[in-house]
């Protein structure tokens, strides 16, 4: 009876259209949240828990739905492709139409993982972390901190659906000195940094000391 119910629901065109209309606006926010969570895991103290097979966008539920063979060939192919890519490149590759045609979904996530693990290697073992202050109209939508003695700075959004109208006047205070965005490559001076500028090229930021 349950199986028949599920088949009937999925096969109902009116319901499917209603569900698609509900889910549509959540997709981009979900992807940004996924990138934010991944960067936090890879830059926080301790061992990052990245579930095998979730290096790309993953829409499966938890056990037992996520127990399936991992397509390592796809991940190797994508990793080779993203190694030298820019943020703009990987975001363009993840266009729903082109990604669907190539089957290469999730380039931004794999690219972020590759870049963040490279920076994590530079953070001294046992390094602590401290928060960075945020100000402005969407200060509550920011998670920001530095690792160690300013080895790296991390800035990610939270409660992403509350940012539909952009960051406005929101800023984060970076320690003084010169920083380089390990994701976008731009140089940034310490002090109050507008998030509309810092996160204009990619949804999260990972900065390293020059």
Give a structural overview:
The protein has 210 residues and is an alpha+beta fold. The protein contains seven helices and seven strands, in the order ααααααββββββαβ. The protein has helices spanning 2-10, 13-43, 72-82, 87-93, 96-102, 107-120, 195-198, and strands at 129-131, 134-135, 142-147, 152-157, 171-181, 187-194, 205-209. Strands 1, 2, 3, 4, 5, 6 and 7 form a seven-stranded antiparallel sheet that branches.
- Which radius of gyration do the C-alpha atoms yield? 19 Å
Structural class: alpha+beta
As a percent range, the share of helical residues equals 25-40%
Low-confidence runs of at least 5 consecutive residues: none
Brief sketch in words of this structure:
The chain is of the alpha+beta class. The chain is built from seven helices and seven strands.
């Amino acid at each position: 009876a349950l199986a028949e119910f599920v088949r009937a629901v999925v096969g109902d065109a009116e319901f499917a259209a209603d569900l698609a209309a509900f889910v549509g606006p959540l997709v981009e926010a979900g992807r940004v949240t996924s990138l934010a969570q991944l960067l936090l895991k890879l830059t926080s103290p301790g061992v990052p828990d990245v579930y095998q097979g979730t290096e790309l966008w993953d829409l499966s539920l938890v056990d037992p739905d996520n127990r399936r063979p991992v397509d390592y060939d796809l991940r190797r192919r994508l990793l080779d492709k993203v190694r030298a890519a820019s943020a703009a490149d990987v975001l363009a590759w993840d266009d729903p139409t082109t990604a669907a045609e190539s089957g290469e979904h999730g380039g931004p996530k794999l690219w972020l993982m590759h870049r963040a693990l490279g920076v994590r290697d530079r953070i001294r073992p046992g390094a602590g972390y401290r928060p960075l202050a945020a100000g402005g109209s969407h200060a509550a939508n920011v998670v920001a901190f530095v690792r160690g003695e300013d080895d790296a700075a991390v800035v990610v959004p939270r409660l992403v659906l509350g940012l539909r109208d952009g960051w406005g006047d929101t800023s984060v205070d970076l320690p003084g000195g010169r920083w380089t965005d390990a994701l976008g490559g731009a140089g940034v001076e310490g002090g109050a940094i507008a998030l509309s500028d810092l996160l204009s090229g990619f949804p999260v930021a990972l900065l390293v000391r020059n």
